């Protein structure tokens, strides 16, 4: 875990209410896909936890939904400005579980962490299938980027305006996979849990205080005890998940 | 004694900086970030007789210059604190730690304090009679002088270490409660715990926090804390540990001028894990700037 300044190299809208930001700084503590960073913004007391979309050298790519005042400020921040960023947070995805044909399922703001995961799995020669779920056509992003990694990509939209009509789980039929990795809203995760036929890795979201395990703000109950989503998570294994709150 | 050292209930601290309970775990996670032996000490995670999960999530809401939490005293219970957490802490912290104890009955306070009193690693026991998060819990003790005194007396009867009673600000007259604790044998008073607060989500029209209300902390509450530390420190003869929104070395000096012998830093640790390290490093220059030769000399130095 490091707390260092990152400079904004680019920051642009790539879909409806969705921004992609490339930051330059010390990425050395980001050790796994599925980890997150926590960003300090002027005028806000708590930091903004954002999942890592990609890391290459000293460049860190984040994709975030503009949903509140904090992310609105982030989206407006011009190139050249800097943010203090805590890096290396959370456990991240375990590549060792993937088998030869992993399935990656991302919904909305859960799509970004799938990118670095897919890149790493593809680099290991794994045959990745990716399902990306969105509300409608104007929210779709990164379809081509995943294809460029050599993955089989399915896009779903709830209103049917693009790709397969329905939810990510409507695209799961007929796909053979050895393990799945997923990130998205909790109702989506629950359906993926029910429909899946193999072991799987789920990434969870919760309102956080600190993001590094100190405040116990994001605790959850699991089969193997209480866990902090920011520290022992955000990735939990299927066999460990308790859905009741 | 060094320029920054202070004496808290008979134990010398190298400096007055103490990470507050609930913002620093059991220390060892911060020890991965910096040498926590630079701290005066720290107050460990609030400990109860039995293990507790605490409240449902969401437990956190952001505010202007602060935050609300309703964690609900999540902790592994006193036996695991002593058997698992303190041995882990011993590997990275050489100083006496401040234990923090909560309870839901006088008997629970007594049970937990008696066990913790036997730990060599513990220097002080901070008794939380003010946590606002648990229904029917600590709140009731901290809101009446009689109940706070009853806990103080009962805990003092079974312990040998200094007992510091941590008070709630959510009361009509904090001075009367502090004085009742002093009369009941308390060795020190710490304040303020969080202020009861609430936020509502405009989209869902529901409280942001699952528990509806929670403890408001952070820079925004600093003036309230300074006022209450001032009032209590000028009414009792035992040491006062000041806390509430402390974020900078200047805040530490201000809190000590108001009457604090030592100063706890809480929410600031959650925003910046290096907050206490930065404050300790900044203190000498800030002391020089204001012509302060020794921190001990400025305690209750407000004119």
Write the layout of secondary structure elements.
The complex is a heterodimer of chains A (245) and B (303).
Chain A: E1 2-15, E2 18-24, E3 36-40, E4 48-51, E5 54-56, E6 59-65, H1 69-76, E7 82-89, E8 102-107, H2 112-123, E9 129-134, H3 143-148, E10 152-157, E11 164-165, E12 179-183, H4 186-195, E13 200-203, E14 219-222, E15 225-228, E16 235-237
Parallel strand pairs in A: 8-9, 8-12, 9-10, 10-11, 12-13
Antiparallel strand pairs in A: 1-2, 1-7, 2-6, 3-4, 3-7, 5-6, 13-16, 14-15
Chain B: E1 6-8, E2 11-13, E3 17-19, H1 28-31, E4 60-63, E5 66-69, H2 78-90, E6 97-101, H3 106-116, E7 122-128, H4 139-142, H5 145-156, E8 163-166, H6 174-183, E9 188-191, E10 195-198, E11 213-217, H7 222-233, E12 240-242, H8 249-258, E13 262-265, H9 267-271, H10 275-289, H11 295-298
Parallel strand pairs in B: 3-13, 6-7, 7-8, 8-9, 9-12, 12-13
Antiparallel strand pairs in B: 1-2, 4-5, 5-11, 10-11
Helix pairs in contact in B: 3-5, 5-6, 7-8, 8-10
CATH architecture of the largest domain in chain A: 3-Layer(aba) Sandwich
Identify the CATH class of the largest domain in chain A. Alpha Beta
Tally of strands of chain A: 16
Q: Nearest-angstrom radius of gyration of chain B?
A: 18 Å
| Strand order, sheet with most strands of chain A | 4-3-7-1-2-6-5
Which two chains have the most extensive interface, and how many residues on each? A-B, 26 and 36 residues
């Amino acid at each position: 875990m490091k707390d260092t300044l990152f400079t904004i190299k680019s920051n642009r809208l790539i879909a409806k209410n969705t921004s992609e930001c490339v930051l330059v700084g010390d990425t050395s503590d980001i050790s796994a896909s599925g980890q997150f960073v926590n960003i300090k913004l002027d005028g806000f007391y708590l930091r903004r936890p954002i999942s890592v979309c990609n890391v290459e050298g000293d460049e860190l790519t984040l994709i975030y939904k503009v949903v509140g005042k904090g992310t609105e400020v982030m989206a407006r921040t011009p190139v050249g400005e800097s943010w203090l960023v805590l890096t290396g947070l959370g456990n991240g995805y375990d590549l060792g579980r993937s088998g030869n044909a992993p399935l990656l399922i991302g919904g909305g703001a859960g799509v970004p962490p799938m990118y670095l995961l897919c890149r790493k799995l593809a680099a290991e020669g794994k045959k990745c299938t990716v399902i990306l779920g969105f509300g409608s056509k104007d929210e779709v992003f990164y379809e081509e980027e995943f294809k460029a990694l050599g993955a089989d990509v399915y896009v779903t939209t709830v209103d049917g305006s693009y790709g397969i009509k329905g939810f990510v789980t409507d695209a799961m039929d007929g796909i053979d996979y050895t393990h799945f990795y997923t990130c998205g809203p909790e109702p989506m995760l629950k359906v993926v849990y029910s429909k899946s036929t193999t072991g799987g890795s789920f990434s969870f979201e919760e309102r956080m205080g600190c993001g590094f395990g100190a405040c116990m703000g994001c605790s959850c109950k699991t089969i193997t005890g209480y866990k902090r989503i920011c520290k022992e998570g955000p990735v939990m294994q299927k066999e460990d998940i308790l859905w009741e709150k | 004694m060094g320029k920054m050292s202070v004496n808290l209930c008979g134990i010398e601290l190298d400096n007055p900086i103490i990470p507050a309970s609930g913002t620093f775990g059991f220390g060892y996670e911060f020890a991965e970030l910096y040498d926590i032996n630079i701290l005066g000490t720290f107050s460990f995670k609030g400990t109860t007789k039995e293990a507790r999960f605490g409240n449902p999530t969401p437990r956190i809401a952001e505010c202007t210059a602060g935050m609300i939490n309703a964690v609900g005293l999540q902790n592994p219970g006193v036996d695991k604190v002593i058997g698992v957490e303190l041995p882990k802490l011993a590997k990275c912290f050489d100083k006496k730690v401040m234990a923090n104890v909560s309870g839901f009955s006088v008997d629970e306070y007594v049970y937990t304090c008696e066990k913790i009193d036997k730990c060599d690693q513990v220097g002080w026991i901070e008794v939380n009679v003010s946590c606002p998060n648990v229904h029917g819990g600590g709140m009731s003790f901290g809101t009446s002088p009689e109940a706070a005194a009853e806990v103080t007396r009962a805990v003092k009867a079974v312990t040998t270490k200094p007992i510091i009673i941590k008070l709630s600000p959510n009361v009509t007259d904090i001075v009367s409660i502090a004085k009742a604790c002093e009369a009941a044998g308390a060795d020190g008073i710490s304040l303020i715990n969080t202020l009861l607060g609430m936020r509502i989500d405009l989209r869902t029209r529901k409280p942001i926090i699952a528990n509806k209300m929670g403890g408001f902390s952070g820079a925004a509450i600093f003036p309230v804390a300074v006022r209450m530390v001032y009032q209590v420190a000028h009414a009792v003869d035992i040491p006062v540990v000041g806390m509430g929104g402390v974020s900078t070395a200047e805040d530490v000096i201000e809190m000590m001028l108001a009457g604090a012998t030592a100063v706890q830093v809480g929410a600031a640790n959650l925003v910046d894990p290096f907050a206490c390290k930065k404050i300790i490093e900044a203190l000498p220059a800030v002391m020089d700037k204001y012509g302060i030769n020794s921190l001990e000399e400025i305690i209750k130095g407000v004119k």
